[in-house]
Amino acid sequence: MRMVDLIKKKRDGKTLTKEEIDFIVDGYTSEDITDYQMSAFLMSVYFQDMTDEEITWLTTAMSQSGDVIDLSDIEGIKVDKHSTGGVGDTTTIVLAPLVASVGASVAKMSGRGLGHTGGTIDKLEAIPGFQVEIPNDQFTKLVNESHVAVTGQSGNLAPADKKIYALRDVTATVDSIPLIASSIMSKKIASGADAIVLDVTTGDGAFMKNLDDAERLAHTMVRIGHLANRQTMAIISDMSQPLGNAIGNSNEIIEAIDSLKGNGPEDLMEMVYVLGSQMVVLAKKADTLEEARNMLEESINSGAAVDKFKEMIRNQGGDDSIVDHPELLPHAKYTIEVPAKKSGVVSKIVADQIGVAAMMLGAGRRTKEESIDYAVGLYLNKKVGDEVVEGEPLVTIQANREDVKDVMTVIYDNIEIGESGEEPVLIHKIITE
Ligand code: URA
Ligand code: CA
What we know:
Largest sheet: 6 strands, mixed
Bound molecules: uracil, calcium ion
Strand order of the largest sheet: 3-2-1-4-5-13
Shape: globular
Number of helices: 16
Structural class: alpha/beta
Radius of gyration: 22 Å
């Protein structure tokens, strides 16, 4: 087989065989295939697309390119959750202990953020002492004993994807549905969970800017999951404005604690209940979504959910006193209000640009090498659909520098106040096949 022939085949819109796709993935992983040939191949996929079968073969080849985690030592059904990305997305930090508190096993592998704010792993590291690098045997033990552990992705999980993703990033081939679907699912499959709940986000703050594309991505990933014998479902959710009120790291931990105590923002709580109910049913801890939701609500009301979060923090070496004393988390030197310039109704909050504003404060990384300032971030006092009076604080900036004019400018440019505005629909669709 010659790579040049396979590039031509895809360029001309033909369908590749499993052997051909294996040849490409193996060859690129072992560096027998060069970056320039792989780049040409990725661009031809971008324009010519792939069939469901091709996407499944690509996913399988990438998932088998490195370590495949065996969670079979953990009793029962292990569920994982994955979001295609958002701004201020605190969901996982609430979901993991909450779902575990009703007896479903959550074996969560998470990435670091290379977006506007930290990823889940970075946010958890805002908790003093919290260890995110835990050895596999320890991970298994924790999930068995405590139903929950959250760890950073092992270094050699789907290395083919790591290499291909880095190349896509610099060849304008990231936003391709077959490439995104195979990239995400290769890691989920290699990380060993039996059931996968996907949150496919749509809107300004997401990869998929419109609903049709999000739907196709969701269907594609669900099909790949089923073909790989994993129970898989997806919800399509709105990411046109950030989720919840807090955007940052420490402040999102506080938001998660509030949520586990039943005082979380409405949109975040709704996401948590919808995704959590699906996870509990997939784990066979409830027969219906309604029953699952009641169990989750009860766990929050009784305090079991927040206790499980304390246990999860202790298990991973963290200081659980932050749950009742959030002032022990890193906090910013300056709190600066951004007042509304006029009265009206908030009609738009551009998620990705608000994410950029948080990053400018230091809440996220511009490059892999940068470090994160856990203390800083933004708090949205108003969300789309809320009334606001001139002079009222629209956003609170938590900063470690006194001059934040640059951040204020980005905020003013990306929050619109109009005559009217409606709260966006949070969950567009639920996809099970
Ligand atoms: N997240 C991934 O892991 N891969 C993609 O291609 C896009 C988002
Ligand atoms: Ca949030």
